[in-house]
Amino acid sequence: MYLADQADPPTLPQTLQNIHDLPHARRSHNYIHNTPPLVDTTEAGPFAKLMASQIANGGAAAPAPGPASAAVAAGVGIPNLKDRLLPKLEARGGSGGAGRRRRDPPADQLPVPETPALPPPPEASTLTFTTPRRRILSTRDHDLFLASPAFRLVQAWVFGLSDAVADRPVSSVGEADLSAPVRTILSVLDEAEELVRQSPPDDQGGSRFGNKRFRDFVDKVKEHAPEWHARLGVAGVGDGAAAAEAATYLAHSFGNRLRIDYGSGHELNFMVWLLCLYQLRALSRPDFAPLVLRVFTRYLEVMRLVQSTYYLEPAGSHGVWGLDDYQFLPFLFGASQLLHHAFITPLAIHQELTIEQYGGEYMYLGQVDFVNRTKTVKGLRWHSPMLDDISSARSWAKIEGGMRRMFVAEVLRKLPVMQHFLFGSLVPAAEGMTDQGRGEAGDDDDEEAEGGGGEVVCEEHGTNHRHQAVGWGDCCGIKVPSSIAAAAEMRKKGGAGELRRIPFD
């Protein structure tokens, strides 16, 4: 401390700097709890006492001997620091008082999408069945879709299934709850899994890109599709045209045959295949929970085998800044399952024992477990920072609402995803959408099934350009190898032990 009779007393800025240099925790405590004074005056000299007095008394002069008091008397102004150093604290009022005010939500926060009413299935006699094809070839087409009944139909179907599994673990659906069509769908997925084993991948010499034997698998799925739909009881509808329309969605639910990739658009195709079966009255509302908790979970198991066998490339991947390389719906359905869980919180995705014990009951935890097992580094914050960030949410209700917003914004409203969506009679296109007809793509294969080939007009990020419908343009994503392939190749080279850590983790 400084004595009053020192020749050169410290200036005001120097004294303020001394105050500022107090430990941060002490200053924070003073700000929060308003405990004066900021300077301990018990051992201080007159000048420091003067400063503390000025701060405490709002700038009123206090007499003090020596040069400091002379400086004050001479009119060397000491500014009023009360409002600067001591913040005004408002008392917290009750719920009906005027003290504490509820914070307004951000003005740009999107509302949580509600579940639209699912319309009843149409009469088959009123439909003209056709092979589904692409109709979203421009931003205008996409805008027409977003304002169409088809958009609301898909949204009502997916959100209706999600609502059906709220607060329900997988084990809540027993064998007695499975209808005959649901059992048939499960047997179809069992046979699809067997087709994977009948089509082993080629040795690609360590390449991590898609294995071409995947195309053999898709061809076998197409060969078996008529028989599968006959067992579902829809082969006779429309002289077999209804089954052919539905089968197109099933064939595309395993990935793209030409590009050998898979993404949320293909996952959506599987849900639309189930929607087609509902539209054809093969499925009904009592089947909704079994469709998610038994059928969709079985589909995930088959797709994980397909992805790890053929190294399917992520379609339009955002890398670590995406929710998942392949899937989206396990997080939506899984958040609904955990909506009001008594003890599993969002932070549970970081607890290995919780994931091990409950991963088979809740899709959200099961998908996180799969992601962890297929990465080459350890730690969600490194390989899946978006999942890591979401885990800090206060409740599953917040996450479930966010997943609904994300499904609409990142799937249905994304042109790079929806330009590959297929429209037929069961999920009809809107009036005025582009219809290039058939035969322009050449062959009845992938270009066909993606809907008739041709060019896509893309207007993303302020640009307006065209690229061929086959493959992804730079606007729609880049060709990247599978992280599953990277992990598998690392294990082949003897790295099957503990996942490597980031050096500074």
From TrEMBL:
Q: Which UniProt keywords apply?
A: Cytoplasm, Isomerase, Rotamase
Matching entries from SUPFAM superfamilies are given as:
PTPA-like
Q: What class of enzyme is it?
A: isomerase
Which residue windows does the record flag with biased composition (Pro residues)? 113-123
Q: Which reaction does it catalyse?
A: [protein]-peptidylproline (omega=180) = [protein]-peptidylproline (omega=0)
Q: Name one GO cellular component term.
A: protein phosphatase type 2A complex
Single GO BP term = mitotic spindle organization
Its localization reads: Cytoplasm
Where does the protein principally reside?
cytoplasm
Q: Which CDD domains match?
A: PTPA (cd04087)
Q: Which domain of life is it from?
A: Eukaryota
Q: Where is this region: Disordered?
A: 87-130, 433-458
Question: Which InterPro entries does this chain map to?
Answer: Phstyr_phstse_ac (IPR004327), PTPA_C_lid (IPR043170), PTPA_sf (IPR037218)
* Listed EC numbers: 5.2.1.8
Give an example GO molecular function: protein tyrosine phosphatase activator activity
State one Pfam family annotation. Answer: PTPA
Gene3D superfamilies per UniProt: 1.20.120.1150
Which family is this sequence assigned to? Belongs to the PTPA-type PPIase family.
Tell me, what does this protein do in biology? PPIases accelerate the folding of proteins. It catalyzes the cis-trans isomerization of proline imidic peptide bonds in oligopeptides. Acts as a regulatory subunit for PP2A-like phosphatases modulating their activity or substrate specificity, probably by inducing a conformational change in the catalytic subunit, a direct target of the PPIase. Can reactivate inactive phosphatase PP2A-phosphatase methylesterase complexes (PP2Ai) in presence of ATP and Mg(2+) by dissociating the inactive form from the complex.
Q: Which PANTHER family match?
A: SERINE/THREONINE-PROTEIN PHOSPHATASE 2A REGULATORY SUBUNIT B, SERINE_THREONINE-PROTEIN PHOSPHATASE 2A ACTIVATOR 2
Protein name as it appears in the record: Serine/threonine-protein phosphatase 2A activator
What organism is listed for this UniProt entry? Thyridium curvatum
